[in-house]
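Notebook p. 47: complex prediction with zinc ion.
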Amino acid sequence: MDLEFLELTERQARFIISGTAPAFVNSIRRSVIADVQSMSIDDVNFYNNTSVLFDEMLALRLGLIPLTGGEHYVSQSECSCDGEGCFQCQVSLTLNVQGPATVYSRDLTSADTEVVPADGNIPIIKLFKGQELLLEAIARKGSSKNHAKFQSSIATSYKYLPKFSINECNGCKECVEACPKHIIQYKNRSVHVIDELQCTLCNLCVEACDARAITVTGDPQSFVFYTESDGSMSCKDLLLTSVESLMKTASELAEFLGTFA
Ligand code: SF4
Ligand code: SF4
Ligand SMILES: [Zn+2]
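Predicted complex, structure tokens below:
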């Protein structure tokens, strides 16, 4: 199996994984989505809310704000406090704003300087003169198996690596017009694909070519994998954590099967 990273930043990762099967790549995708835990606001105590939104709507908005850090916290179900809530499984964030003002995620004050909104400029609500918001939000650790707000990855997907075969053609340029990604060019009396990785394998260029001069297929053993982080952790940590989880599951399965040997 080969791995070639095309891009790895804090928020985005794209790589080609070759010599493997779709099931394996899909297991990475599922693990990135569901096995990685992060902190999210899970409970909100409202002390004063004279804004135009109900408590429940504000609580939903607060829950969807990505929070950084929290590696050393455990989920409430795994904590020794038996669900009571303690410094090992929850963090308190307070919000106290009087209108007129637009309330942003940066207005949340966290008891743990590492567990803070990943982006400070997420608008929560606009308060008019005389309106007030005073609340305590409790952040806990969880995975998207429990709620989508704990999902750190967004737009996680993979596709077959596109492969092109272009024979001599009549130069009608129909394929150039048909490609929605604008990656086909007709130059020097021949057809060229300028950025193969952008191809979505839609086959519109193939259908447009009456001369049957162009074919596009997906390599069944090579895939382009893409994921984005919501900012709660780096893409590197996201991928490492998911792969560790897969390895743990695989070794548990091997151990289980070993009992039948
Ligand atoms: S398969 Fe679709 S995206 Fe790919 S080159 Fe052809 S028209 Fe463009
Ligand atoms: S549509 Fe076919 S024949 Fe026309 S330029 Fe494209 S590859 Fe050549
Ligand atoms: Zn606890």
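Notes: The helical segments are 22-34, 55-63, 174-178, 204-208, 235-258. Residues 185 and 192 are 5 Å apart (CA to CA).
Next step: compare against the earlier run before touching the bench.
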